[in-house]
Amino acid sequence: MGSAEVSPQMAFARFVRRAIDDARQERGWTVTDLATHTGVGRSTIFRWLAGDWQDYPELAKVRGFCAALDVPVTAAFRALGLPDGAPAARRRVDDAPVEADVRVILDRLADPTVPTDEKQQIRDLLRYLAHRPARRAG
């Protein structure tokens, strides 16, 4: 017996559920807070959670949702079964390829199987590194 395929609705619902759970645990946000910070309406968030959609979610809303939660938008696009969220002609200039180790970190942060506390440790370390004074060689 093979494994059943997961629909984009189910995969995206799992992605949204994990993001909501992380926002609740890390920031104390309710769904109402999430709607306020992301610009995505409560009813839309609940539809996403229920997998209650036929047409794909508006990519601008998905991007806003991910940006407000510091979640890589590529994780949402992967859950939706989209290669990168935009046709090649519409790709943004700032979507330049990243180094392999940075890609691994982004994938880990987007992976719903990685525990929340591990994701928080990664984020804390990245914030520390981003804000420490630059050291000069020599």
From TrEMBL:
It comes from Micromonospora echinospora. This is Transcriptional regulator, contains XRE-family HTH domain. SUPFAM superfamilies: lambda repressor-like DNA-binding domains. GO terms for molecular function: DNA binding. PROSITE patterns: HTH_CROC1 (PS50943). It holds the Pfam family HTH_3. It comes from the Bacteria. CDD domains: HTH_XRE.
